[in-house]
Write a structure and sequence with these properties.
Length: about 170
């Protein structure tokens, strides 16, 4: 159902915009199945097509965010001005409990599957599979790629050994 002031669901099945206690003002879902814009402050956000994509759900700021297509993509918290373009199971999340920079502005994930961006402001992940970006400059013991602000991360794939090949760039 639509619980939103000036919001709209245009076509599709099982889509949800806002709840009885949370508005998704000026937001829209255009087609698709089982897509949700709800919780926190997801105002002026859009989901176009796809299946079971979510913007909002928690109390953090996900205003001005967009998910286009794909399946099971989520922008649950700290996704201000975020973008997920297609892919499967990609997530824009907060920085996590141990990180001092837990917000994440204008982050994007384009394609790929099961990629996660945790608070690396102004960063882009393109493609890849099961990659995680954190807002610190190192690689953790689990092999997650941890990069600074304003980072571009291309496809990340392990080779036949124990190495990980990363394409892209980091700021100077």
């Amino acid at each position: 159902g639509v619980w939103s002031d000036f919001g709209a669901i245009m076509a599709g099945t099982g889509n949800q915009l806002g709840t009885d206690s949370t508005l998704a003002e000026n937001s829209a879902i255009v087609s698709g199945k089982g897509n949700i814009i709800s919780g926190g402050d997801p105002s002026q956000s859009v989901i176009v097509g796809g299946e079971n994509n979510i913007i909002g759900a928690y109390s953090n700021d996900t205003r001005f965010s967009v998910i286009t297509g794909g399946r099971f993509n989520k922008m649950l918290e700290d996704g201000y001005c975020g973008f997920i373009g297609g892919g499967y199971g990609n997530q824009i999340l907060s920085g996590g409990q141990a990180l001092t920079n837990s917000s994440g502005l204008t982050r994007s994930i384009i394609g790929g599957r099961h990629n996660q961006s945790h608070g690396s402001n102004y960063s882009v992940m393109v493609g890849g599979s099961y990659d995680t970006m954190f807002p610190i400059d190192s690689v953790d013991s689990r092999g997650h790629v941890n990069l600074p602000l304003a980072t571009f991360l291309g496809g990340v794939q392990p080779d036949n050994g124990s190495n990980t090949q990363v394409t892209g760039s980091t700021p100077d």
